[in-house]
Every structure is written in C-alpha cells, then in structure tokens.
Input
Amino acid sequence: MMFAVAMTFIDQTIVSIAAPDIVRELGLSASGMQWVVNAYLLALAAFFALGGRLADLYGPRRVVVIGTIVFVVSSVLCGCVPKGDAAQGWLIAFRATQGFGAALLFPAALAVVVAVFPPERRGRALALFFGISGALTAIGPLLGGWLTEWTWRAVFWVNVPVAVVALVLTGLAHISDRRRAGTLDVPGAALMAIGMGLSVLGFQQAWAWGWDSAATWGCIAGGLVILYAFVRYERGVRHPLIDLRVFRDKAFTVDAAVLFFAMLAFVPLFFFASVYAQVSLSASPNQAALFLLYVFAGFAIASQWGGRILDKQGARPALKMGTVVGAVGFALWAGKLTDLSMHDQWPYACLAGAGIGFILAPASTDAVNRAIGPSYGEVTGITQTVRNFAASVGMAVFGTILTHVTNTNVVNTLESRGFSSNVAHEVARDVTESITGNGDDSTPTGTGPAASAMRDAMDAVRMDFAEANQWVFYGMAIALGVGFLCALRHPGGRAVTEQSAEEPRKTPSATG
Output
C-alpha cells in the first residue's frame, strides 16, 4: 500500500520543479500552470470521500487496483501532451483525472492498513504511514529536478514502473475485499465536488478577473454556499458521504483546523519556492531541488520528534510547537528572500520545514484515533479532504497574491525607467505571465516591448519577483500563526486507541 500511495504524494509536488520547462515548451499562461498543479489537488480533495465510500461498497482491493490504473493512465497521457492550442486544456484535464485516481487509491489503501493492524498498534502504524507520506511529498521536487534534466515529461512517466510494482504487490498480498452494506451518496459527492471547484476557481482567477469582479466573488460565494448545502444535506442522509458527527469531538475539530492552516503553506511552498529559486536566484531545476532539500531536512527530523511527543504527551504540545516554529521559520525566511542568496536562507527553510514536520503526523494520527469502529473511516476521510482542499486554496490564494504584487512591482520599475503608464502596464502583465510560471536564468530574446523591457531590467525584475514572494511567505507565516491559535484550544491528552468494551467490533470504514 505504501508503494501504491507513493505516486499520489510525490505527484503533489514533483510538477513544481518541471513548471518552467512545461510553460516554456507548451506556452502556458501563469494561471494555466498554476491550474496544472491545482487541478490535481482539487480533484484529490473533491473526490476523496467518494473514493472511500466506493471502497466501502465494492471492497478496498478492487478500488486500489482501479485507482492505480486510472492514475497511471492519466500520468502517461499528461506526459504525452501535444504542443499547440490544446496543450493547456489537455494537461489540466488529465491532471484532474490523475487526482481522481489518487482519490480512489489513497483511502482504499489506508483502509487496508487499518484492517491489518489491531487497535493497540494502529496509532504507531498510522503515524508511520502519515510520516512517510509527508516525506514523499517533500521528495517530489528532488526527483523532479533530476528527471527534468532529461525531459519534463519524465515527471509523469516515472509513475509507470511504480504503478506496475504496486499492482504486482497488491496481487501477491492477497488482500481481503470486505464490503459494507449501504448506498452511494451521489448527490453529496456532486455537491462537494462543485462547491470545492467553484470556490477555488474564484480564488485562482482573481488575478485575471480582478477582486472587484462579480465573477470572482460569485464563484467564491457560490462555492461556499454549495458546501454549506452539502453539510445540511449530509445531516439528513441515512448513508452520508461523510458522517459529520465526528466534529462533536473538540480535539478532532482542532486537529482538522490546524491541518487546514498548515497545509495552506506546505504543498504550495514547493511550487512557489521552486519558481522563486529559478527566477530570482537564477537556479537550474537541480539547484532548485537542492534548495528545497533544506525544507525536507527540517521536516524529516521534526516529524520523528513530533511522533515521540505524540506517544508520550499527546498531540497538543506537538501542534503548539509546530505552529510556532513554522510561523517563525516562514517569517524569517520571507525577510531573507530579497538577499538573493541561497546559502543565507537554508536555516530558515529548515525551520519552516520543521514546523510542518511537528504538525503533520501528530495531527493526522490524533484525529484518526479520536474515533474507532464504524466512524473511523469518516474521521480519516475528513482530515484528508481538509488537507487537500487547503492545499488547493493555498495554491490559488498565494498564486493570486504573487501575480498581483509582481505585476505592481514591475509596473513601478518600468515607469521609473521612463515607460508611459499604459505601456508599463501592458509590458508588466506580459512579464508577470512569463516569470510567475516560467522561471529560468536565460535572458529573454525577441524584439517586442516585453522582451526589450526584460533585457533592460532583468536584475530589477528578479528583485521585484523576490519582493512579491515575500508577501507569499509572510502569508504562510500568518497561516501557521492562526494554526497556533487553534492549537491552543486542543483539550490535550492522548487519544484512546482501543475500542470500548461496550461497543461491538465492526469492520473499519474505508473512507480513509
């Protein structure tokens, strides 16, 4: 199961390193490239609970196999995207189907793990599961940097051998395909997918449409209203997609809230730090991957420490420590971005990664352990949906901030160099579209105004982009700060991992 889910976590971040090469070869817009990353995260969040419910109804082994096949076929098609006008739509569409395959695969795989371990060993097993999955998310950029040296298409094709091994191992494991009685909540699944999609669309397109646009706020408000309707609908369904009663547990609610604010920063960090390294620091894809290794180093060390704190003292100390360390790390890192020195930034990158490491496994495991038996799957389904939805919102919100501030900075730079306001705005938009999704150290060529402006003001534009990234990183620090306020409300104590003697033992749900 770890082999199977490895693909889904690596794919959350591996595309970040290849983004400049993809944009350059296919001619994608900055918004289009962000959607290539976000389509995967959004589909994963929107269909996660549906994947778990399908595993309940049809058996986890079958759904693992189907999800793996959908995922790897979509990966191959992403790598085979043709050049031309259809490229952007093609890539976004198959990234979304990749996310759908992952949404089928992951909860079913987690259900298998849950069924294998008895309650008294489940906490340690899941801590390892979530810890390794977080580490795989961080490894994505490193693998992406190496593969991109050959071709950016390899970041998608690398999933093929992993999927083959996963399918072979799944067959050899002789996994039991236990099914549960019930029906599929199709209306609930549709409401969740539409609500999440609309709200993220509004945040993502705010750069293009403007924050004063009725379309922007219509999408955001419409999505939130539909998600509210989903919650109301689920309360009256006999077999809901997600059993929302788990929110009655205060510790679980706090765990989910802290995960939301942590994941606002964690997955988007790899995209924005990678593009920053390649634009402002003129780093190659491999150098950008090594830059992100500092984050992973801090994450790996802290995740082990956080697991020990969880075992001995419960989740509350780990969550408080993680949110404080993460907020301080991101804030200090933001202050160093304009120094344009990779060497000077590594302590703060480690600190930011450590903050997330203290949070991820303890919060996920504590939330899972807050419900046993029939509600176990619903708990894990909600936490994973929250994590991936937060990552999508983070990509959209921080992407909008980055493009807006970059555009403003470049306009000011060009006007200070004698350009008229109209020309400065036109060129700045072209420049912003280029560098927010296409960072490299090459000098632009061509005879158009954008190319000329870039050649004349390349150093200033690199600094403009670094200053825009400061806003993003300070935003991530604020997100962790809000997470700290949530962590203060955690009731503390260790979650009960054994089922009460009064409750009948039931097969855990696969909502995972």
